[in-house]
Specification:
Blueprint (H helix, E strand, L loop, with lengths): L1 H4 L1 E4 L5 E4 L8 H14 L1 E4 L6 H11 L2 E2 L14 E5 L24 E8 L7 E5 H6 L3 H7 L3 E5 L1 H4 L21 E5 L1 E3 L6 E3 L6 E4 L4 H15 L5 E4 L6 E5 L3 E5 L8 E8 L6
Parallel strand pairs: 2-3
Antiparallel strand pairs: 1-2, 3-14, 4-16, 5-16, 6-14, 6-16, 7-13, 7-15, 8-9, 8-12, 10-11
The chain binds N-oxalylglycine and manganese (II) ion (MN).
The site of manganese (II) ion (MN) has 4 residues, from loops.
Length: about 280
């Protein structure tokens, strides 16, 4: 019985390690427990054998409905699976700064099921930051100050025609005409856990609604410096077959770029989300 061996161990900082599960043969109860761990801890980590595309798609669908990412290159035969890839000769990686995916969408993707396929000999870890814990640790004054605020999020500066990636050797990620923007509360209540989370991020948040740009930037910088404290973070080391299922509403992530000259390939499936409040 798989359910007899399942163990979910909360990690310091952020996330939970799931042990005793085979992603390709999980029971419904195990899937429910993994989803609950993702909602509660922001990210769940699994180690196992590399899944076939079909098996990864089947596993992801049991966690939540799949949505196709508009920016990342797709695997040849499976539009559901995006390739998060860095070639030996490329120097810029994908996601190499603190961010949460899709905050520029009106209904941001719920999260991702990211599986390592090829890992570099050393390095290539991913850092995760717990936005529930970051929110909880704010002062009462700061909580009161940000409670009514909304922030503006955009994608053009990252994925658009004259974007950050366009200036690098990852122009393959840039040049898009479809570059949405959205407004979300600075503090959201997670629809699955009922907990409050800080929902601004250094990559896609561009300002605070109703504040002068300088004032909004200063407030965002203060919130970012707070959330960047290592006490809210976990560092995940991948092996081929390792899976992270993260929740964009409750975490940030940061892909380390410390394996120059080596190849890294991840298969990512994006899970659909809804409006935030
Ligand atoms: C992503 C991402 C991190 C990594 O897929 O959204 O940021 O470690 N990836 O590859
Ligand atoms: Mn990302």
């Amino acid at each position: 019985m798989h359910t007899d061996t399942l163990a979910i161990r909360p990690l310091e900082g952020c996330g939970a390690l799931v042990e005793g599960i085979d992603a390709a043969r999980a029971t419904d109860a195990e899937i429910d427990a993994v989803r609950a761990a993702v909602y509660d801890r922001g990210v769940a980590f699994l180690h196992g054998a590399v899944l076939t595309p079909e098996a990864q798609i089947a596993f992801a669908k049991r966690i939540g409905p799949i949505v196709v990412n508009r920016y990342f290159p797709k695997t040849e035969r499976y539009p559901e699976i995006a390739k998060v890839e860095k070639a030996e000769a490329q120097t810029t990686n994908i996601g190499g700064g603190w961010h949460t995916d899709h905050s520029y969408d009106t209904c941001p993707a719920m999260g991702s099921v990211l599986m390592a396929v090829v890992t570099p000999p050393t390095g290539g870890d991913t850092l995760f930051a717990n936005m529930y814990a970051a929110y909880d640790a704010l002062s009462d004054e700061m909580k009161a100050k940000i409670a009514p605020l909304k922030a503006h999020h955009a994608s053009a500066h990252v994925f658009g025609e004259a974007s950050v990636y366009a200036q690098t050797d990852r122009a393959d990620l840039a040049g898009h005409k479809d570059t949405p923007e959205a407004i979300h509360p600075v503090v959201i209540t997670h629809p699955g856990s009922g907990k409050k989370a800080l929902y601004v991020n250094p990559s896609f948040t561009t300002g605070i609604v109703g504040m002068a740009p300088d004032e909004g930037r200063a407030l965002l910088m203060e919130l970012y410096a707070h959330a960047m404290q290592p006490r809210f973070h976990t560092r995940f080391s991948w092996a081929p077959g390792s899976i992270a299922i993260w929740d964009n509403r409750a975490t940030w992530h940061f892909a380390m770029n410390d394996y120059q000259g080596h190849y890294r390939l991840m298969h990512r499936i994006t899970l659909d989300g809804g409006p935030l409040s």
